[in-house]
Amino acid sequence: MANRCAVIGIGQTKYTDKRKDVNHVGLVREACKRALEDARLSWKDIDALVIGKAPDTIEGVICPELYMAEGLGMVGKPLFRVHTAGSVGGATAIVGTELIRAGLHDKVLVLGWQKQSDSDITWALSPNLPFNPPLMAGAGGFFAPHFREYIRRSGAPDHVGIKVVVKDRRHALKNPYAHLHQPTVCFEEIRDTMMLWDPLRFGETCPSSDGACAMVLTSEKFADHGSARPAWVHATEMRSEPTFMPGRDEVNPRAGRDCAAALYKRAGITNPRKDFDCAEIYVAFSWFEPMLAETLGFAEPGEGWKLSDSGATSLDEGGDIPWNCSGGVLSSNPIGASGTVRFAEAAIQVRGQGGERQVDGAQLALAHALGGASQFFAMWIVGSEKP
Amino acid sequence: MREVAVIAFGQTPNRRRELALNEAEMLAPVVAEMLKGVGLSRTDVDFTCSGSSDWIAGYSFSWVTAMDALGAWPPIIESHVEGEAAWALYEAWVKMLVHEELEVALVYGFGRQSMSSPREVMAMMNDPYLETPLWPDTISQAALQARALLDAELCTERDFAEIAARNLRHAESNPLAQLSGQPDPAELLEEPTIASPLRKHDCPPITDGACAILLAAGDRARALCKRPAWIRGLAHRIDVQALGRRDLTRSQSARLAAEAAGAIGGKVDIAELHAPFTPQDWILQRELEIPESTVINPSGGIHQGNPMMGTGLVRFGEVAVRIINGEADRGVAHGTQGPCLQQNIVGVLEGE
Amino acid sequence: MSESQKPVTNISTPVAMHYNYSIGAGMSTFMRAIKEGKLLGVRCPDTGKVYVPPRLTSVETASPMSELVELSDKGVVYTYCIVNIRFYDQVLEIPYAYAYIVLDGADSAIMHLVQECPIEEMRPGMRVQAVWKDSSEWTESMENIQYFKPTGEPDMPIETIMDEIRRKSHA
Predict the structure, then answer these.
(1) Dihedral Cα A141, A146, A152, A157, nearest 10 deg
(2) Which residues in chain B touch residue A255, judged by CB atoms under 8 angstroms apart?
């Protein structure tokens, strides 16, 4: 029988396009120190560190956590690096929970980070391999055809993507850590941005951010040690599916459906929309919200856009299932951290630490991280009650 | 604590260059054969984890295509470690301790070093602000460590040559080994140095290779393997990286990992030490307190091959197979990454 | 503060790494064939799905695949994207369309440019045909095909085609 795991400390940096004032160690220590302070622990109390980051081509260092070991206070201790593309922030947190649940450690620091300003992000994400003609350039270009297919399949009106962005960017105004703070953001403003990869406009894409997010996970023994009540980990789940399967459905990936179904079964969730008080879902481009709403069981196939369109996912509009009160990936995207941020923001909600972005009385929250060609899924459920 | 064992191991022949096949194509037959050997199909694998490096592969997300070669449908539970696959083994072990429904796990690693200049590429595994701009390549860094040992009068160059000779001699019985032979250490010492005091025999070969291990838990392991190699202890630790900030004649983290894994004291029939450079073998023997009677690197150690990011996993596999086939009862496996034995993982494997 | 006292806020370290990639046996087969103007796929023995480019093992079942299939250079558009932005090292005139194209006889989709088609006429289900470079210029490269263009034939029900492909999966 595995042990329980609690989140007792959370720390983030303010996400921004270029952190010129800190180097790698400075960036991650900022998040870690805040998490330790929140947990009322010190560096030497930490038993192990799990660190996640997306491609090392972005910072131009092979396994930077190795040279950062001293700055992370991990000399003489176990330090572990995860890399599962965009979902890494979530996968990292999951490994952290397992170290606790296996009884190997009592206090684990989990950290996701990325310093995207170090190099050219477009190059780092899609270096042109020989033998492949360079066609699309950039992640948005990869996903745009699949958004088009979703729109065709579901009959969703064009405006839904824009509405999702406006919602998330308005949420971000309530989150001091979010990268994009756009006080005047409105439907027309997003609609009038340049169409990059039709049907995806510039305004519907995530920013490129520098940032770090850390969480202190503990065993039950230390659950009440933090400055706020703990967030209990109720369940975690991961799934991956291959890239080149003929007929692969990138619009509604089986890996996502399977991951969510397995996760909900573990935690006794039968109706995600009703059972969760809020969700932090990896929506890096506008149309992912309606698509993931279907994949993750919040709406029937073909109906996800109605959830977004109706305001159900908006905190501001009093929606019954707010998604991404933090502003989500659309408002901040240091790739290696973004999954951790989702997991952390879900924990922030059930700990009542959300400030202006708090969902009143949130007790059960879902977090999701997505990576690769919509193929890597990492999810967790956290609650204010012990599982 | 749930019992988890290594029940099978496979690897490609270690070659200087594998031009015809890409990483996924190299890996697929190894995994297929390994599964077949224990009577399992790919759908019997409950968790998959790999270790590799985007910079060695030469492009981002490089491990993703390897997954395509393994038949990942329906979708699988899978994760990836950026770095040495021995740490992917650690992740698989931890997950199996927690999740009872994970009974069988596949761990693999691969590296095709022939594609680039390893010395150049691996210089990127340093502090990018203060060290990388000086391009400290791995051989020069290891040479500094060797020099520290000589200056402290802990070792002689002859000691290093004898370690190489021992590895090469053991590799003679390994059909997959890249290098092997019966050289006289005195002859090895006559070779010119590459980066003083290191000679070619002190350095790892440049290898293209892939490797994989199967783990299984409890009674499932007993059902699949006549003599599973039980993981009695597994732990990893890390030292500060900067060479000037540590005693290069030591590897504190190797010692700490060995202590935490329970590898020190007790019977050690065999030890597979992931020492990319011969002086590091000497250091590890000391830190892990390897008994005199232990057979070290029966596979040939680093001289059998360096499929980088898989080499540490191979050490675990080589200990495991010798336990499985009854050659040994208890063994220590070690993996490393980071310059000069910076980060180390140690495991104790034992047969019933 | 004098120049020498100003804090150093960044350093720039240009890095150039040279890699010799091997595309692997599957792609090699494809490239050798495309040099002769042929498009090759390979059939999965378990699902019957034809992969293009060929691979040594099935992505779904890991079974070795060896049955090579010669494919038409005509196909159907599954979905597509219109690019309106210029990126570094991009040589194409904007706006341009690229699409996932299911070649006749294949189950996987390839990605390629679609040209000689007014942007507003791009649509799923459209029949397209490869436009090759002059055969004297053919090498081991996907770029032997410059782009795909509409054939003018009636559209095909791509949704049905995709459903049929998906139904071939065993799981």
Answers:
(1) -60
(2) 75
Residue carrying the six token digits 């989150």? A175
Verify whether the Cβ–Cβ distance A136 to C98 is below 8 Å.
yes
B54 close to A (CB below 8 A): yes
**What CATH number corresponds to the domain at position A85?**
3.40.47.10
| A239 in a structural domain | no
What domain range includes position A87? 5-121+208-222
- Rounded to a whole number of angstroms, the distance from the CA of B186 to the nearest CA of chain A is 37
Q: Which residues from B are below 8 Å from A57, CB to CB? A: 54-55, 59-60
Compute the nearest-CA separation of B310 from chain C (Å): 19
Q: What percent of chain C is predicted at pLDDT more than 90?
A: 77
Q: Is the pTM of this model over 0.95?
A: yes
Q: Which residues contact C14 (CB under 8 A, 6 or more apart)?
A: none
Output the six-digit token pair for B171: 């590799």
B207 neighbors B314 (Cβ within 8 angstroms): no
Asked whether the beta carbons of residue B129 and residue A23 sit closer than 8 angstroms, the reply is yes
pLDDT of C1 higher than 60: no
Q: Is the CB of A244 less than 8 angstroms away from the CB of C21?
A: no
User: How many domains does chain A contain in total?
Assistant: 1
- Find, in chain A, the residue whose alpha carbon is nearest to that of C145: A133
Residue type, A207: P
Mean pLDDT for A106-125 is 91
Chain A residues close to B98, C-beta within 8 Å: 2, 98, 101-102
**Chains contacting A (3 or more CB pairs within 8 Å):** B, C
Q: Where along chain B do its domains lie?
A: 4-117+208-228, 118-195+230-350
Residue in B with minimal Cα distance to A101: B98
Chain B contact for A249, CB < 8 A? no
Query: Which of A303-307, B94-98, B247-251, C92-96 comes out lowest in average pLDDT?
Result: C92-96
pLDDT of residue C2: 65
Q: Is residue A136 part of a domain?
A: no
Contact of B21 with chain C, judged by CB distance below 8 Å, is answered with: yes
Omega within 30 of 0 (cis) for the link into C95? yes
Q: What pLDDT score does A132 carry?
A: 62
Note the pLDDT of residue C32: 97
- pLDDT for A137: 61
8 Å CB contact of A70 and B245: yes
Mean pLDDT of the residues in chain B: 96
Q: What DSSP line would sit under C13-72, residue for residue?
A: -----------HHHHHHHHHHHHTT-EEEEE-TTT-PEESS--SB-TTT--B--EEEEE-
- Chain A residues close to B121, C-beta within 8 Å: 62
pLDDT in tens, B286-340: 999 999 999 999 999 999 999 999 999 999 999 999 999 999 999 999 999 999 9
**Strand A376-383 to strand A231-240: parallel, antiparallel, or no bridges (unpaired)?**
antiparallel
- Structural fold of domain B118-195+230-350: Peroxisomal Thiolase; Chain A, domain 1 (3.40.47)
Enter the ipTM.
0.96
Residue A11 belongs to some domain of the structure: yes
With respect to residue A115, please indicate whether it lies within any of the assigned structural domains.
yes
Q: Any idea which architecture B4-117+208-228 has in CATH?
A: 3-Layer(aba) Sandwich (3.40)
What is the percent of chain A with per-residue pLDDT over 70, rounded to a whole number? 97
Q: How far is CA A192 from the centre of its chain?
A: 27
pLDDT at A136: 62
